[in-house]
């Protein structure tokens, strides 16, 4: 994730759990009329958009905040909120006059995350890696044009507080984790996603395209991609895709201070070591099938 892009700017670039700056070059726009016209059941799509507005950094939201985040008119948001509360997907605090996700929504989230066995195996290896290298480890997967964090571990000696909690979103186009995931999918699917990014990126597209192409090439040549202070001077990141049979691709990233992650260490130690870890996970999980 060009965790560089962003990691130290944690402050508000993207709502919905996006760590500001962490892979976020532009704010998420509301749902466009074109996108909505492609949906057969618009009320359902709008209800899901309301649920998607919540995240680790946006636990409580009011009507106007949800309307701004989703692009849905406030009166419609009010009706959707009433229905979602009645169905148990949202909780309404009358004093705050705000809403937060309720148990029914959380149940959907848990069911939708990666195979629990995959996360369990990855978590064990991530903890070992983080402790051995004094780094911050992150596991993620793709959700549309975002990378969504599934798990994170930090070494006890790592002086980093990135707050990349499960549910945090990083933009696929401006994060190193996103480039690693793009490198792992078929070319046709990759071109389709990049086309969607181009339509939303505007003037940022040439820079994003160049960076993505460079990182995808690194994955194809080395097995991993790296970013050494390119977005955030104080942070260096290495990322590698993890391909598990019958599962969407996952991505592992190792993040640390550039002062402790010089290019030589990344290329000779951390990158190959992270790649070996991914391969061990792939083999171990494939053997279960």
Description:
With 289 residues, this protein is α+β, with helices and mostly antiparallel strands. The chain has helices at residues 33-37, 42-52, 63-70, 74-86, 103-112, 116-133, 176-184, 187-201, 205-222, 263-286, and strands spanning 90-93, 98-101, 136-143, 146-154, 169-171, 225-228, 235-242, 250-257. Strand 1 and strand 2 form a beta hairpin. The two termini are 30 Å apart. The relative contact order is 0.15. Mean pLDDT is 82; it is low at 1-34.
CATH homologous superfamily (4th level) name of the largest domain: GAF domain
Beta content: 15-25%
- CATH third-level topology of the largest domain: Beta-Lactamase
Mean pLDDT: 82
Q: Compute the separation of the termini in Å.
A: 30 Å
CATH class of the largest domain: Alpha Beta
* Largest sheet: number of strands, sense, barrel closure: 6 strands, antiparallel
Question: How many distinct beta strands?
Answer: 8
Number of DSSP helical runs: 10
User: Secondary-structure element order, as H and E?
Assistant: HHHHEEHHEEEHHHEEEH
Structural domains: how many: 2
Strand order of the largest sheet: 5-4-3-8-7-6
Shape: globular
Q: In angstroms, what is the radius of gyration? A: 19 Å
Structural class: alpha+beta
Q: Regions with pLDDT < 50 over 5+ consecutive residues?
A: 1-34
CATH architecture of the largest domain: 2-Layer Sandwich
